[in-house]
Amino acid sequence: MRRGPGSPSWRPCSGAPDPVALGGFWSDLLGWEVVRSSPEWVVVRPPDGGTGLAFQLETDHVPPTWPAGPGDQQMQQHLDVRVDDLTAGVEHAVALGARLAEHQPQDDVRVLLDPAGHPFCLF
User: Fold this and answer.
1) pLDDT tens per residue, range 67-112
2) What is the DSSP code string of 42-95?
3) Taking a C-beta distance cutoff of 8 angstroms, is the pair 52, 41 a contact?
4) Residue 11: its pLDDT value, please?
5) How far apart are CA 121 and CA 36, in angstroms?
6) pLDDT of residue 32
7) Which of 40, 51, 103, 115 has the most CB atoms in a 10 Å sphere around its CB?
8) For helices 86-96 and 19-30, angle between their N-to-C axes, nearest 10 degrees
């Protein structure tokens, strides 16, 4: 992609019924800073200033189904988060408000659902 003056930066954005709460969850989980917050839009970014995550208000948000079946709301993206200790990482995420998904397809990866129901993986 060619960048020029005024070219926008990019970051993944997820919809949520409460972007402030979801941004707080991801900020706490990743140890990142909330750099922009309003009831409609939240941005969290790593301390080094790299690409962050955004969360926007979707009042009619429908969480994806994991794993999706025919006709289910499917996830459009998910995040993979590397942790030093999988058990401790899961415990930390759950303490912050995540839920362990019922379906776990791999022994060395854990699928969790964030407070808005978006699947993410710890590995």
Assistant:
1) 989 998 887 789 999 999 999 999 999 999 999 999 999 999 999 9
2) EEEE-TT----EEEEE-TT--PPPSS--TTSPPPS--EEE--S-HHHHHHHHHH
3) no
4) 87
5) 25
6) 97
7) 115
8) 150
Q: How many residues does the chain have?
A: 123
Considering the chain, what percentage of its residues have pLDDT values greater than 90?
78
Do 118 and 14 contact (CB within 8 A), yes or no? Answer: yes
The torsion angle over the Cα atoms of residues 40, 27, 16 and 98, rounded to 10 degrees, is -160
Cβ–Cβ under 8 Å, residues 29 and 81: yes
Only one residue has tokens 């699928």, namely 111
CA distance 119 to 16: 13
Backbone angles phi, psi at 85, to 5 degrees: -135, 110
Q: Does 6 have pLDDT greater than 60? A: no
Helix (H) or strand (E) holding 22: helix 19-30
Among 36, 39, 55, smallest CA distance to 114 is for: 55
Tell me what pLDDT residue 72 has.
Answer: 87
